[in-house]
Amino acid sequence: MSVSKATIRITVNGDPVEVAFAPHKTLLEVLREDLGLTGTKHGCELGECGTCTVLLDGTPVLSCLELGVACEGRRVDTVEGMARGPALHPLQRAFAELGAAQCGYCTPGFLLTAQALLEQHPKPTRQQIKEALAGNLCRCTGYLKIYQAVELAAAWLRGEDERPGEEALYGRR
Amino acid sequence: MAGGKDGQAGLRVVGRAHRKIDAVAKVTGQTRFADDLSLPRMLYCKLLRSPHPHARIVRVDTTKAAALEGVVATLTGRDLPTPFGILPVSQDEHALAPDRVRYVGDPVAAVAATSEETATAALELVEVEYERLAPITSAEQAIATAEPRIHDYADRGNLHKLIDLEFGDVEQGFAEADLVREDVFFYEGNTHLPMEQHAALADWSPDGKLTLWSSTQTPHYVHKALAKVLELPAARIRVIACPNGGGFGGKSDPFNHEVVVAKLAMLTGRPVKITLTREEVFYCHRGRHPVLMSVKTGVTRDGAITGMHFKSLLDGGGYGSYGVASTYYTGALQTVTYQVPRYKFQGARAFTNKPPCGPKRGHGTPQPRFALEVQLDKLAEQLDIDPAEIRLRHLVPPYTLTANYLRVGSMGLGPCIQKVLEGSGWHERFRKLPYGHGIGLACSSYISGAGLPIYWNSMPHSGVQLKLDRSGGVTVFCGSTEIGQGSDSVLADVTAEVLGLDPGDIRVVTADTDLTPVDLGSYSSRVTLMTGNAALQAAERAREILAEHAADKLGIPAQNVAFADARVFDIADPERGMTFAEAVQTAEAAVGTVGTVGSYAPPRSAGRYRGAGVGPSPAYSYSAAVAEVEVDPESGIVVVPRVWIAHDVGQCINPAAVVGQVEGSIYMGLGEALMEEMAYREDRNVVHKIPSLLEYKSPTTLEMCDVVTYLIEDPDPNGPFGAKEVGQGPLLPVPPAVANAVYDAVGVRIDEVPITPEKVLRAIKRRGKGEAGRVGPDSFPDIPWPEPIRVPPPWEGGDGKAVSGEPARPVEMRTRRGDQG
């Protein structure tokens, strides 16, 4: 069952990487199995749930549907590369503060999809957030804290001194 | 009691919103789920699953598969002959079917190979000869078909479990009623759909020790099942539950694949991993039972219930799983919200040739709650009483015993109802909105942990060890399992509160049978209450030790020693004191290494009859919800713009996490109300129609409603700081609230979930033709019920024991059997 390996050069989270793998492998498999970047998760491996979302040249893609060999020369960003040095990315911080990650399994996919959204729309409406995240399934949160976290992070990224909403933390009085 | 930010007097952690201790790992991708693990020389396992719903296995031959290059080992049912199952009364599963398959997807053979591709290719080479048997496709068919039996054990034919419990004379109750209604309801089965597919990794050491990492909610029960099936001493088996990427009850059974990889690791001496495909996750199932229900209720003119007779028929699928407990649960909690003076419950679970059903969020209680709350809406309308009023008038009083001997403690349902009425503008809107718009109310209650363990024993349900390091570091060890609900954080929060630390200062080691004391697992909403209490006891003992020796050093009485801000000091003179680390060093110098233990066992149940094991809990949570709907009468599409929910959680440990659990429950309830269903092609194949995330409809961001959450805090003396459950209860009122709102909007009753556009349209058309505007089941079948077990309720002089209907056996055995979940 051995096949000769394909080799590609890609930029992963800013680092130039050369990686060899069986040519039928998806980007998801290359990241998880050949590069040890298990932060990218999978929920179906059929392109149905958005869990495996990564950024390919800045655009969210389902890494389970992307062949590794098709990524030659391209830039891949995963959750492992989101933090800004020792500090969390504002989206990561907002997700943590609000409890927008419960089991955390779908979280990397949501974070990267949201990151791409905020690069396009620094001040997205709630409806824009819903539409951007409509391809990512989450079974824990009911999405509400995720919207709030995206809005909070957007404010931080715009340089505003926003705080988590009282109702998000304590319910309505 | 004032809730939220200002909190209970003197509390510094509990009641204040803060980051969960695992939040950073989860947002950075550092949390290691089971499939993220790999070991050197690891093999990959694949299971061959039955293509037939019901068949005898004539022959299995793995010779050709074993000969394929890269295949290291194969297994069949002969290699693992010992049965297992989660309940002691239903040890009916095999890791690989030895002689019979009972649903499409039942595992028959296993392969371990050097790559996943090779293992998959090898499955094609396994030869299996089946002799097909007639499948049983529905619970009704199971009643009618005693032979052939799907299992050779069952209460009767293919009826796995039959229950008949009587608490007082319901016929007398109906005779005293001004109005008696009988309604039939159906709640379709649905599945957990955790985003993480189940995965397990086993490693065998030549010194005779086995380690299993798995996405399981119940490592302790997996530990027991492995010891039994593998015939290894349990002390040589280590089970580590990785953080679960969502569970919702779907990872609570010991599973075939866990046993198989363990056996393969033992045979090959190499690590073996399996990750189920999404399709296989649908076959594992253990999800919500489809339940047909009949409920007959008598009420007086003012809405007081005089008697209730509840019947349920569960489609259990091919194996027992938690089904006996699920069946009892469809009859257990009817009595804890509104006063029911006389109550009769008859429940039946059928074996059918479908993937086994089990516990899903709310375990066996969302179905009866749907029936109860929709019928109450109908009763209120007939009596011309507001649906909120009929509920508020007849609430179960706090600190009382119900007809079936459940001990209700704190009971905040009244304030919950008031909150959602105010928030939703109920009195201005109910029955007053334009056609197509409606609001509906429903309430519910849920257990904060089951009163009894799954297997009979008198040991604690949860244990905690606390290690205090001279650095000032504190580590909490507990067998509890983090599934996203925040159980790790509860341990840190409670410990931090007692020791005057910040939760971020605490390290937590959980769910590892080698390192952590037993906790029974993340099911039945038990963790906050039970591990919280165990942690509380351990932390208070540690505080006592530290206080004693700090007091000596400060020359003050021990009761004057205070703990806050990582300092230990004189409460009369806060400047006089020491750091927490110095306090540990002082104690360590005096008495040696500082560590404590804590544990928790629930109070003894009041019921002493057979079946009394299901329903008792240290504390009951309460929820009230108002759903708003928009129904398009042309398409039948129901949109839910908003749900107002109030939940009595006793006391928030971390309010932000509580709000998250409430919102997640509403989401899952909304999916069940409107779209989620396990659908089968019910011909001879009984194949799951839709085993994929695309075809199994679940709410996306575009369907999810807004949620307005009110947290009600009615502390329960049995909860740590008064805390009760929140992870499951708030799901329960959603489906009936939506159904009641649909009636308010367009005047039709959809007496079954999911409430699909097709059903709404059908009901509207019927109404237009002058027929009853209703879609739902018409009748409940005749079932050969056993002799009822008669237990007089407390107000009729009962003492919790049966007066007739029970075989003569010692009471201890009867009430403490493994009928639990």
CATH architecture assignment name of the largest domain in chain A:
Orthogonal Bundle
**Major sheet of chain B, described briefly?**
7 strands, mixed
Tally of separate domains of chain B? 3
Classify the beta-strand content of chain B into a percent band: 15-25%
Termini separation of chain B: 32 Å
Secondary-structure arrangement, i.e. CATH architecture of the largest domain in chain B: 2-Layer Sandwich
**Element string of chain A (H = helix, E = strand):** EEHEEEHHHHH
CATH first level of the largest domain in chain A: Mainly Alpha
> What's the total helix number of chain B?
20
Give structural notes.
- The complex is a heterodimer of chains A (173) and B (821).
- Chain A is of the alpha+beta class and 173 residues long.
- Chain A has 2 domains: 6-81, Beta-grasp domain (Ubiquitin-like (UB roll), Roll), CATH 3.10.20.30; 90-170, [2Fe-2S]-binding domain (DNA polymerase, domain 1, Orthogonal Bundle).
- In chain A, 33% of the residues lie in helices and 14% in strands.
- A 5-stranded mixed sheet of chain A has the order 2-1-5-3-4, with helices on both faces.
- In chain A, a hairpin with a 2-residue loop joins strand 3 (53-56) and strand 4 (59-62).
- In chain A, helix 2 (90-98) crosses helix 5 (144-157).
- The radius of gyration of chain A is 17 Å and the shape is elongated.
- Chain A starts with 5 loop residues before the first strand and ends with a helix.
- The mean pLDDT of chain A is 97.
- By secondary structure, chain B is of the alpha+beta class.
- Chain B has 3 domains: 4-31 and 459-600, Aldehyde oxidase/xanthine dehydrogenase, molybdopterin binding domain (Aldehyde Oxidoreductase, domain 4, 2-Layer Sandwich); 34-133 and 197-243 and 251-284, Aldehyde oxidase/xanthine dehydrogenase, a/b hammerhead (Aldehyde Oxidoreductase, domain 3, Alpha-Beta Complex), CATH 3.90.1170.50; 291-452 and 607-775, Aldehyde Oxidoreductase, domain 4 (2-Layer Sandwich), CATH 3.30.365.10.
- In chain B, 26% of the residues lie in helices and 24% in strands.
- A 7-stranded mixed sheet of chain B has the order 3-5-1-12-9-10-11. In chain B, strands 32-8-13-14-15-7-34 form a 7-stranded mixed sheet. Chain B has a 4-stranded mixed sheet with strand order 18-26-27-30, with helices on both faces.
- In chain B, helix 10 (366-383) runs parallel beside helix 18, helix 14 (487-499) runs parallel beside helix 15 (527-554) and helix 17 (655-674) crosses helix 18 (734-746).
- The longest helix of chain B has 28 residues, at 527-554.
- The radius of gyration of chain B is 27 Å and the shape is globular.
- The two termini of chain B are 32 Å apart.
- Chains A and B meet through helix 2, helix 3, helix 4, helix 5 and helix 6 of A and helix 1, helix 3, helix 17 and strand 30 of B.
